[in-house]
Amino acid sequence: MEKYLIVGTGGVGGSIAGFLALAGKDVTCIARGKHLEAIREKGLHLRSDLKGNHFLPIQACTAEEYNEKANVIFVCVKGYSLDSIKDLLEKASDKDTLIIPILNVYGTGPRIGQLVPHVTVLDGCIYIVGF
């Protein structure tokens, strides 16, 4: 089974993680602080008009704790945080990994490609209503 890694489990990353988990995918979320504690204790809360309200038991850890190779990595951090996740992206990827940046700035794919040149990077775009 493919492994999906969500780097930045806020509104966008959490939504992606939730829908992947509902589809039965192997998902791990990178989070910090109280958000990480909440996901570990209660699961990831997904509220969707289409799929309903769910608390999903999803693997969650810090960047330092993650020690697997992912097949697909969704990068959902703020644009100014890209440099800070370089070590995680290097550790979590190999030549067959696909990285899809879903950031608040379009066109970050080339920048991620410079940070981790051994992977395939495809720019992504998503529209989510959050509250």
Give the strand content: 25-35%
Number of strands: 8
Counting H and I runs of at least 4 residues, what is the number of helices?
4
Q: Using the alpha-carbon principal axes, give the shape.
A: globular
What's the average pLDDT? 93
CATH topology: Rossmann fold
Q: Classify the helix fraction into a percent range.
A: 25-40%
> Would you list the SSEs in sequence order as H and E?
EHEHEEEEHEHE
**Integer-rounded radius of gyration:** 14 Å
Secondary-structure arrangement, i.e. CATH architecture: 3-Layer(aba) Sandwich
Given helix and strand content, the structural type is alpha/beta
Q: Record the strand order, biggest sheet.
A: 5-2-1-6-7-8
Ends distance: 32 Å
- List the uncertain runs: none
Verbal overview:
InterPro entries: KPR-Related (IPR051402), KPR_N (IPR013332), NAD(P)-bd_dom_sf (IPR036291). This is Oxidoreductase. It comes from human gut metagenome. Residues 4-128 form the Ketopantoate reductase N-terminal domain. By secondary structure, the protein is of the alpha/beta class. It has a single domain (3-121), classed as 3-Layer(aba) Sandwich (Rossmann fold), CATH 3.40.50. Helix content is 27%, strand content 25%. The protein contains four helices and eight strands. It has helices at residues 11-22, 33-42, 86-92, 109-115; strands spanning 3-7, 26-30, 44-48, 52-56, 59-61, 72-75, 98-101, 120-121. A six-stranded parallel sheet has the order 5-2-1-6-7-8. It has a two-stranded antiparallel sheet with strand order 3-4. Strand 1 (3-7), helix 1 (11-22) and strand 2 (26-30) form a beta-alpha-beta unit. The longest helix has 12 residues, at 11-22. The N and C termini lie far apart (32 Å). The mean pLDDT is 93.
